[in-house]
Amino acid sequence: MTLTTVPERSALDSGPAAGPQARRRRPALTGWAYAAPTALFVVIFFVTPILLVGRMSVSDWGLFSGDRGLNAPENFTDVAEYRLFWPAVWFTVKYTVVTTVILLGLALLMALIVQESSRWTGFLRTSFLVPSALGLASASLLFYALYSPQSSPFGFLGVSFLGTPAAALWSTVALIVWRFAGFYMLLLLVGLQGISADVYEAARLDGAGRWQTFRYVTLPLLRSSIALCTILCVTGSMLAFDQFYLLTKGGPDNSTLTIVQLIYNFAFFGGNNLGRAAALSIMVLAALLIANVLQFRGLRGKEG
Length: 304
Description:
Blueprint: H1 18-57, E1 59-62, E2 66-70, H2 74-81, H3 85-116, H4 121-129, H5 136-147, H6 165-193, H7 197-205, H8 210-221, H9 223-238, H10 242-247, H11 259-267, H12 274-303
Antiparallel strand pairs: 1-2
Helix pairs in contact: 1-12, 2-12, 3-4, 3-6, 3-9, 4-6, 5-6, 6-9, 9-12, 11-12
């Protein structure tokens, strides 16, 4: 009697048990392969700089001398006790509030005009969006020429656009509103076009007028778009640097000095102290996180 031996199943044999597991593993590996470049980019250009800034913020780190050891929490206390710190904080908050209110109000008005218009829609959209195609630095230089007494076409008015603290603030706000109103108008216009016409028809059948329709229909349904614009505007205003650096250099008499300009001054202009600049950067990052969390919670509470 002859005995036949059955060969053992190889580990690489794609049998019924191994097949489904291998098929499930392949999409996962493919997904990781697609996500790896983005993850590597985030680690190199976002996580690593934050960790480095965190290390600098608790160290005696000069621009030219390098790391001279830990000194926590000296950098944070020195920043808080610096004579221009609280004026810079107050000015940044004031500029953020003024810019956000004016910019979003004007952008919403422009979006409503474009939404309602029929004959001039293309012309209005193009006119409102043209300034958004210009870089902020280029726009700042353009307005600097407009405000300069030597080249301004408004020189005959005898107005000093950048000579006083109030004039410098409002002149910069005018630049930002001109530059970004079209961008925020576009975001709000997308939200307006996402509202169904049936909702407005139902409001008209119920006897709602224009103001009632805007207040009780348009604004509630536009809340998500307004929240997005608010977060972007608040974040951009709190990080304002280019426009003030090119227009006012923080003047007159440091009256338009923002937090980010103060970071620049600590690091490169006179201070040459990367430790203090990093400490202030961490404080600004914490303030931004708190502001964004409060805005997200406010939006979620209203929708709930």
